[in-house]
Amino acid sequence: MDRTGAPSDAVAEAMRAVPRVGFLPPAQRRRAGVDQALPLWHGSTCSQPTTVAAMLRLLDVPPGARVLDVGAGSGWTTVLLATLVGPSGRVLGLELDPEIAAWGARNVAAHDVPWAGLEVATPGELGRPVPGGWDRVLVSAAAAELPDALVAQLAPGGRMVVPVRSTMHLVVRTPDGVQVSQHGTYSFVPLR
Known about the structure:
Blueprint: H1 10-17, E1 38-39, E2 45-46, H2 49-59, E3 66-70, H3 76-85, E4 90-95, H4 98-109, E5 116-120, E6 134-139, H5 148-151, E7 154-164, E8 167-174, E9 177-185
Parallel strand pairs: 3-4, 3-6, 4-5, 6-7
Antiparallel strand pairs: 1-2, 7-8, 8-9
């Protein structure tokens, strides 16, 4: 509960604690409060804040979770996820563009979240398998179809939020298999 007695919103609190201005190139920082995707470089963008909030709410990240952040870009979502999981969790951000990944890694390192890091993704591979799987997977680029390689990396009970073409998908691994639901239309750069 917050001080008004309303239920607290961990995502809104994380977004207040981690403003995106510090994750934007200097030329874009004056536009940090604008609710739209902003360009980084090499065709990459920093996602629209309302889109990020919607994705994080769908992901339903609990404290202590192990989270994979695919298409981490500037590191903003990696630090937001680290804020949600807390020091008992782990967040790995992956970014395919080496220049953006290096910058994003510096942005993550500038925050007090040693349980989170951002690395260059392996070209031609989606994600990074870990023993037992990831509790949560956030994908910030649009896949042409549901990425089976990432679905396979979900832990039992795990959740993944991924845009497929222009539709946001929530994937949940259940004891009976995988459940997929759709949650609105969005615009993303393509998943490579």
